[in-house]
Amino acid sequence: MALNDRKIQILQAIINDYIETAEPVGSRTIAKKYNLGISSATIRNEMSDLEEMGLILQPHASSGRIPSDMGYRLYVDHLMQQKELSPEEQKYLQSVVSRDISQIDYLMEESAKALSLLTNYTTFVSEPVGQRTRIKQIRLLPLDSTSLLLVIATGDNFIKNHVIKMDSVPSEEKIFYMGISLNRVLQGCSLNEIDGAVISRMQAELMEYQELLQPILKAIEMTMRAAEKIQVHMSGTKNMLAFPEFADIQKAKSLFQTLEEKDVLVTMLEESKGNDIQILIGSENSVQGMKDCSVITATYKMGDNTRGTIGIVGPTRMDYSQVISVLNGMVQNIENVLRNLSDGNKKNT
Amino acid sequence: MALNDRKIQILQAIINDYIETAEPVGSRTIAKKYNLGISSATIRNEMSDLEEMGLILQPHASSGRIPSDMGYRLYVDHLMQQKELSPEEQKYLQSVVSRDISQIDYLMEESAKALSLLTNYTTFVSEPVGQRTRIKQIRLLPLDSTSLLLVIATGDNFIKNHVIKMDSVPSEEKIFYMGISLNRVLQGCSLNEIDGAVISRMQAELMEYQELLQPILKAIEMTMRAAEKIQVHMSGTKNMLAFPEFADIQKAKSLFQTLEEKDVLVTMLEESKGNDIQILIGSENSVQGMKDCSVITATYKMGDNTRGTIGIVGPTRMDYSQVISVLNGMVQNIENVLRNLSDGNKKNT
DNA sequence: AGTTAGCACTCGAACTTGGTGAGTGCTAAT
DNA sequence: ATTAGCACTCACCAAGTTCGAGTGCTAACT
Prior knowledge:
Two copies of one chain form a homodimer.
Chain A: H1 5-21, H2 27-33, H3 40-52, E1 56-57, E2 66-67, H4 69-79, H5 87-99, H6 104-119, E3 122-126, E4 135-144, E5 147-154, E6 158-165, H7 172-186, H8 196-206, H9 213-228, E7 232-235, H10 249-260, H11 262-271, E8 277-281, E9 293-302, E10 305-315, H12 320-348
Antiparallel strand pairs in A: 1-2, 3-7, 3-10, 4-5, 5-6, 8-9, 9-10
Helix pairs in contact in A: 1-3, 1-4, 2-3, 5-6, 5-12, 6-12, 7-8
The first copy, chain A, binds a DNA duplex (30 and 30 nucleotides) through residues 24, 26-29, 38-42, 44-45, 47-48, 58-64.
């Protein structure tokens, strides 16, 4: 059976209507709302064909049709037209990334929030994990009479502060030189490179302040562990409650539970690496408990190596074209920011 | 009508049962489950009295009784017995605050999470805002060949990092002395004290790196604004979905919306200042949209001045005694931490 | 041959009806 | 003062009913 022009128009109409109303779409509705110049009876015949082809289906006999996962797939691959971002959306996305680019984790957090606000779906964002595994800078600062501040920066400007308590702090100069020395020893180190040799060199640099060794080691470990771990920021989970798909509280709860398991998300994000934009529709998604959802992920890169992923989760009946355009816009903005950061890194070596 | 011993026993039984089952409690249930040595008929008579006194009510005629807000109030004020924290709970609370005390905002975030985990209700925590309005330390560090790191610490060890981009960074020593000088100028300043005079002193200290002035001023402003703003961390909102009270998705949504408006929470927290522990039951709560909830707040202090607040939101049918004991435990732990921090501050002056 | 009007049919949703059980209030006996 | 007994109420459930949106099929029309 050929998928002629008219069938496509009808499929298009069904998908549009269903995305909008979440109700099965009947032939009469299409005849009235979309002026295709044919009667409902003809539409019925065509719909029967479309169903045979597996593109639409009936939730129950004698109800209207809804798109099948396959139908959405066809729509996404061939029918859907790319939406342009409105100037306001464009502007908004830009304002988000430019607000505070100094620390990657804030940037990601804000990006997730912005996306869920713009799309009304749930968003998750995985932080870039690249050059993070090595110490880039480590310094000591005075904080007050009984505490020092240890600042550790790893690649990608992932920065952590740690307060270290001590009975009395060294002089400003001493702190400075101790910081410099520590930095000389530790710069470029990854966590498992800090062995006995490194530690005894640290001890040598700490001089009479050996008490600092333990807290510093602990702080380094905490920072590196946090840096290594793929961070997933999620936002807008509660948006899902607004969709009739999740009117049943049980469904909502089980989806939330699935989303809560960050491991699942991480796997999903990992799988999507390599593709620019990946769209998983309903059952295409391997994660049980998200069969009623579609997930659109985009990876942002810097140079060649992929860095992180943004994903948007919504009901299969989601507004694919809007999501894709917003996602593309966001990726571009983030890549710009990352490029700026990396320029700094490169010149450093 | 006198509230004799037996009536109290019956009220107690109703409340206990209702907290457990969320179902209206009938006279026969009480007669069977709680061996009060009287028949269901007698209990009915007593219940009729209790209802007249406004302590319990019937959701509909010929159903069992549920406690009224007034009934809960009586229970909380006079009947409820303080629960002891189990050693495990005690230990858990301690482990949370000791995990990472270096930065107040992490501590608060973790506290909120821990409380919602322990109680299965929703928790919100407001950060202490006290000596935050003044700069405690401000320093510069090298980050890479095109960026500096500006570290700003205000009171309470509220610490923010800012990456500043520049064409080429000064030498390590120069950065150090510039940081020291800046610190000399800015230490102890609040945001509105940074006037023309201060700025020209900063300019003098920056020497040939005037380009740094603008980013530094911007970073200071962002940090101080963030420090001044009362931060509210919330956790465990999704716990509410598990309660039959919120089986209706509309109710859940409207509660979530209310909780989302942080202003509302802040006001509520402000109101509760002064009291050690404040319990608002159902309609006692002035916030519309939380009439079906009880809110228990505790303030943590340091010395005399109140610092911040922890609140737990649950259905009116919440386990008051458990929540109160957990809350008390948490407050003590947080106060310990804050005391340690402040010791450092004092010696500094 | 393709299109359309018409009609019988289907099935979920919304409403009605009747039975059941948990619960009450009241009264009379203990 | 307490309790057994009884009539009564009302939410809840299951079965039956109606209604309407929708389909598939057929016959007539272009």
